[in-house]
Amino acid sequence: MKILAVNxxxxxxxxxxxxxxxxxxxxxxxLTDVRRSAFAAVLDQLEMRxxxxxxxxxxxxxxxxxxxxxxxxxxxxxxxxxxxxxVNDAMxxxxxxxxxxxxxxNLGAFIAERFAGRSGCRAxxxxxxxxxxxxxxxxxxxxxxxxRGSLVHALNQKAMGRKAAAAFGKRYEDCRFVVAHLxxxxxxxxxxxETIPGVDSVCGIPDSGIAHxxxxxxxxxxxxxxxxxxxxxxxxxxxxxxxxxxxxxxxRMKLIPVQTEIEGKRMLFCDDSIVRGTQLKDTVVxxxxxxxxxxxxxxxxxxLLFGCRFLNFSRSRCELDLAARRxxxxxxxxxxxxxEMIEPYLEFDSEKYRAMVEEIRKSLNLHTLKFQxxxxxxxxxxxxxxxxxxxxxxxxxxxxxxxEFE
Length: 406
Known about the structure:
Layout: E1 2-8, E2 12-19, E3 22-30, H1 33-37, H2 46-59, E4 69-73, E5 84-86, H3 89-97, H4 107-119, E6 122-126, H5 154-167, H6 183-191, E7 201-204, H7 210-220, E8 228-230, H8 244-254, E9 255-257, E10 266-271, H9 278-289, E11 294-299, H10 323-332, H11 339-342, H12 351-364, E12 368-371, H13 374-381, H14 391-394
Parallel strand pairs: 1-4, 4-6, 7-10, 10-11, 11-12
Antiparallel strand pairs: 1-2, 2-3, 5-6, 8-9
Helix pairs in contact: 6-7, 6-13, 10-12
């Protein structure tokens, strides 16, 4: 059986041809910013993407009418179990209306149907991003009014799980895996590609930084190492105790240094965020005390400049406790910067943004410091940007009238 597989992403369309399980051809059809910006809506790109796929297949010597099945990546459909689904009119109507948002993966069903029609075969999608197999406990969001929804990279995660099961000589259904999506860390490494510092290892601050560090390591070719082991039979979050000295003690107890991975090493750390920076600063001190030669830091999200209105990152509710806010206050020579003062610092890589990052770097005694770009973070999440709250990074309020509570 000859199969055409199509995976439309935001910046490219990946295609592959298989003879049963044997890959015959793989290619990534890149889309320039200019080419994508010519279309108001994602589905308007259908003809353009199909033409590029046709050209790639033709150049590789494959006839468009010779496939026995065509499969596309599943898009933002209603919550459903994982599996393989036939493309039908109801599915296409839902993707056209896009009640869960526009995303490049929504094109998968339409592209599959277009090429299936040319071969006279069936069109399918597999494991859409709306796969919902969360347990009841996993649906707890922390806010009683909101039930946590499921939007995941199910296609890739389940594929990796099946590969791992095969390597163990077991059936996928008989295994239990922890699968991490590493795209955010990989995109940070891509941004560092031309200026990546000379490091001996890439490390994650347990546990939140581990997936980012593995992704960075894979993309950069720098070895991943565990320089800290997390000891968890203490407080679940180190900011919970009322007393600062107890919080500091809990933070130190939770991170057990691995001396052989620290001494004499130039290390690049990844973590999910830098909030106040207090514990990170203490961690850097501990690393130098144990003989680290250099400590670099990559934050998997932009600088936090506004206090979250829904959850709490720390015991304090004062925005001036945020490391980025303190840096701006010092640069602007004021006690509490206004929103108007902060606005110029929101522009990534502007002169003021770079000055803020440099001030944070110096305060933490890091060799280099970089933050993830907001657009790269949202791209790694893989859902409609209108459904992502970005208030803590840019102070932009969410339009609650556009948010669906399911």
